[in-house]
Amino acid sequence: MKVGIIGATGYGGAELYRILLNHPKVENCILYSSSEANTLYTDSFPHLSEISNHVLQGIDIEEIKKNIDVLFLATPAGVSAEITPKLINSNVKIIDLSGDLRIKNRADYEKWYKREAVEQPVLDEAIYGLPELNREEIKKAKLIANPGCFPTATILGLAPIVQGNIIKESSIIVDAKSGVSGAGRGSSRATSYSEINENMKIYKVHEHQHVPEIEQALKRLNESVEAISFSTHLIPMTRGIMSTIYADLKRDITDEELHEFYKQFYKESPFVRVRPLNQYPATKEVYGSNFCDIAVKVDERTKRVTIVSVIDNLMKGAAGQAVQNFNIINGFEENTGLYLAPLFP
Amino acid sequence: MKVGIIGATGYGGAELYRILLNHPKVENCILYSSSEANTLYTDSFPHLSEISNHVLQGIDIEEIKKNIDVLFLATPAGVSAEITPKLINSNVKIIDLSGDLRIKNRADYEKWYKREAVEQPVLDEAIYGLPELNREEIKKAKLIANPGCFPTATILGLAPIVQGNIIKESSIIVDAKSGVSGAGRGSSRATSYSEINENMKIYKVHEHQHVPEIEQALKRLNESVEAISFSTHLIPMTRGIMSTIYADLKRDITDEELHEFYKQFYKESPFVRVRPLNQYPATKEVYGSNFCDIAVKVDERTKRVTIVSVIDNLMKGAAGQAVQNFNIINGFEENTGLYLAPLFP
Amino acid sequence: MKVGIIGATGYGGAELYRILLNHPKVENCILYSSSEANTLYTDSFPHLSEISNHVLQGIDIEEIKKNIDVLFLATPAGVSAEITPKLINSNVKIIDLSGDLRIKNRADYEKWYKREAVEQPVLDEAIYGLPELNREEIKKAKLIANPGCFPTATILGLAPIVQGNIIKESSIIVDAKSGVSGAGRGSSRATSYSEINENMKIYKVHEHQHVPEIEQALKRLNESVEAISFSTHLIPMTRGIMSTIYADLKRDITDEELHEFYKQFYKESPFVRVRPLNQYPATKEVYGSNFCDIAVKVDERTKRVTIVSVIDNLMKGAAGQAVQNFNIINGFEENTGLYLAPLFP
Amino acid sequence: MKVGIIGATGYGGAELYRILLNHPKVENCILYSSSEANTLYTDSFPHLSEISNHVLQGIDIEEIKKNIDVLFLATPAGVSAEITPKLINSNVKIIDLSGDLRIKNRADYEKWYKREAVEQPVLDEAIYGLPELNREEIKKAKLIANPGCFPTATILGLAPIVQGNIIKESSIIVDAKSGVSGAGRGSSRATSYSEINENMKIYKVHEHQHVPEIEQALKRLNESVEAISFSTHLIPMTRGIMSTIYADLKRDITDEELHEFYKQFYKESPFVRVRPLNQYPATKEVYGSNFCDIAVKVDERTKRVTIVSVIDNLMKGAAGQAVQNFNIINGFEENTGLYLAPLFP
Hints:
The structure is a homotetramer of 345-residue chains.
Chain A: E1 2-6, H1 11-21, E2 28-32, H2 41-44, H3 61-67, E3 70-73, H4 79-87, E4 93-96, H5 106-113, H6 120-125, E5 127-128, H7 131-139, E6 143-145, H8 149-163, E7 173-178, H9 193-196, E8 201-203, H10 211-221, E9 229-234, E10 241-248, H11 255-265, E11 272-274, E12 292-299, E13 304-311, H12 315-329
Parallel strand pairs in A: 1-2, 1-3, 3-4, 4-6, 5-6, 7-9, 11-12
Antiparallel strand pairs in A: 7-10, 8-9, 10-13, 12-13
Domain Semialdehyde dehydrogenase NAD-binding (chains A, B, C, D): 2-141
Keywords (chains A, B, C, D): Amino-acid biosynthesis, Arginine biosynthesis, Cytoplasm, NADP, Oxidoreductase
Pathway (chains A, B, C, D): Amino-acid biosynthesis; L-arginine biosynthesis; N(2)-acetyl-L-ornithine from L-glutamate: step 3/4
């Protein structure tokens, strides 16, 4: 396969490239950048010195149509809105890592993202690329909306109990924590080292653009789900997301039953690891890998369930999941080139 | 005043000593340690080189009765149970930073702490030292149970809406995050650098010993309060606690009303800073200080309130609050020697 | 005293303000900022909420001449060059934390700083504010060039053996390491969290602008000193500088003799702590304080000496030393308002 | 190949296992542990959940002789001294990651390690496994002494100029910095998070046991080399070593000549990346990989050279280099299963 990455100079793009360099089905990977065209990729990312001697290329839609089988968009919000419509009728399959194609309802997108939505026909074509819930649709897709980092951890944590009708639909509270790399490679005071180190913040309270994405996915599983509480915290670490999820139980269920239900739910999903009962995942335990690790625990005192779900935001939360989708749409084994052990410590 | 610190070689003890060294009402501060008696304090804490030439002393109850006006216990669970009863009838006032005297109900203590409780008469004598809720009782106290770190942040965050009958009593969920210094100065694999750095964990799920302390304090404010959900996360930083609190509103209330209600509630409390609406505190903004910073926000979509409360766990969560109590029981201004600006960055 | 700070919205300015707020001789402290005039200081630094309600003021030279006794310049290179000449003939004493006034030789400044130097008469007026070497001159000064962070740690580490004629003058090698706050509060990719965390870099190899400042100071102590090797490393921490210094011994000297020589050299200097033999300082042991901690050790195998010198770059390396100079030029005790214990851990 | 790892529950062992799990020539990898025999490996290292279901085995020399082709010893000092002699006459090839077999001179070992050395015949048999200097000997070896972390970075940084007779033999100064994982997985106060975070220390001044290893290797390249100055610093990060090296030039040489000389020296070595002139490596740029990145720069002012050499201490400094040696002694391509791109950020 010949693949391309637009936005290769961001963290998501670099992580994609790291995976695709060793992917057995990828023959060639072309890196595009509007701002840094004609420079060596290793000028941006010297950690790839002597591994890659790739020169960044300018974005040329006609060239892409001719040379690329699958195009990854690892770009900020708004770029996909511009590029995707131009390629929609070509043979190029697209996996879009941005949020532009995830929200089916244009008004919702515009309310939460505060920018104009992509035109409806393009949105209709896009398949939400969360393989654990959506594998069959993805197989036939030409255009993938790759999920956001918080939604991936959160939806995978909630899917079994939401679909299984185990919790009260109005009771979902998600307390999410993220490392800083999710903010991208641009510079800002808010993400500078001296402001983040030895510090912890809450941000975008009740306003995070990932809320409608999570609610949309949950409603596909159970249309009675109501608005969720969702808050996001910035943690002094580079990679890693943890969603701690709380919900009221609708009926009595034991830890063992709940745990077994999760094990069954994900038994065909190689990247979800439902951890043994009473063992809780730490973010470092999925570091650099495509795993989503989940633990569940009933609280007898409050009749609530606590769910912990962790991912590496650049892997299962972005580039890893994109390659997982790439494998599925091309009929490869889901974990081809992607079954990387986490790096610990 | 002549003061003593038992457990001076832990982090809480060191922080107490840092404050008391500059406290204008403290004439002499004696440091006790059973394990390191007769060694220089600066052997344990060289950051105090040339500031202190104190030699650690062995614990001698009779000597303490004679020489000490106020004794701080900065010791692990169990030590106070042994020492406090021996001093209860002396003139020595005691401020106990451990959890031993906080839980009035012995069965609750024994269930959550998994060790034998202090005898009931001693427990009955102990006053819970959260000045913002309890100032009048503290003034007359001889024996103070200094609150835990998580309870301080959590109870101060919740007190106004719990007392004000604003939220549903069964709906309280607290997602708490802490830096590592709360685990103390002992060594363990779980708190070693390589295991904590670039990592985040949840721990003691549904089992944290601070749960009964929080519930006891909330029930004093509003006896209808039911069991709370409380989870604790270990964050890769040394100091700082954040409690993110969620609760269902009982009635309509605007952000402005809620914010004003908090401002009024704490208007006599110099160490609680209710932050301006839409400004959220970060833990570094109270670093090294005795402040508890709080933000409140109503979520119209879910009819819930989100409250964020941050402290420095070694200050307002331990040593700082202990000195605040020391000031109150001695009739000094509440912020004497304690009005330290946070260190930023 | 009425004092002013220009550049109050940087880290150095904020640290100055933290100290001066509690300084017993400071009656009023006015904060100036050209870029953020007329905004609340706590909008920039919310950690000072309710401690300060100061509104930043625009820079007005005439107003300063009228209202300010001592003016601190906590500004980037170039600003002092513009402001200082306008105040040089007023009654305002100036303490300049930038590098503009430190290098007496204009050609050296222009070579290393790559910008135009201040006019010679102003340079001639400026006294280099390293009190441990220069106390008498500072007492009479009206214009202080406050030393750089690396120079402070390095010169204090080297002064005794350079003046004492103990080492070969061509053999000085300084391997310096710094936390990130020295880079200031501006945002840049190079100092963003994801680039610094879990990473270590060398930078400005053989080109750091602090080289001529160090050499100038050493030559005042011993004119035979030759060019030094000086390298700087960026360490994943916010505060702290360590200079590890190597030099060839000219003659046999024991550890005990060397250590005693250092103790004597600094016996009148309250902020230099020569640590006991075989005890080495860590940067955290001076965190938030104005101390410079030094250890010395002879290596019998190589006939070299190793010296370790640590400071908090924002304190003894900037704001703390500026207040030390402020105390000296005003005839106050050198440690007035400044004898703060380090914050540990 | 059937391989075994003794000491699999340490960080070096875990990193070996991570690599060997994906190594195309390894059919089976058995993990041994005396202290945790008969427990699941994932109980120690849950990041490998569902990747490994290996049960740790007790150490049984006879079983090893029968079942194992190559045995890795990832054990603390002293263990190899006990195990290696028992296997020396078997068919098992041994790669020892500890320091026990590195020092040929028993007296040197005993002086620096402060424990009894291995018997001389075993030491004589051991080949020092630094492939870039020693590839031909390693090909024929049966017993490999895998180099230490600091020696690997330092010797590779120095080898060209030492062998090339470019520097004065008495002038070598090495200022080394390391992340904390090099201290292993045991718990100690000195490596606990609260003591390391936001802190930097120098340790083992003039006493580090890696000194004789470095000097021995350098003397093999140039017997005139004299005692080196070598200091080690603990940096608040988990992985990564940087050696900053200073030496006096014997003769004039330009940056370009020196750089070219290094390029040539390492042209057959796939894991040494001599970085382009004026580009300096950061430790994160080799994170999780087996690369050693080197930069060189002449200082015209001092007639010295500065060399910067970085590795991941658990990879090129331990497990990665061990697998590199494994490949060489078995006649595989040197980078088989090991050409992993660094993880960034």
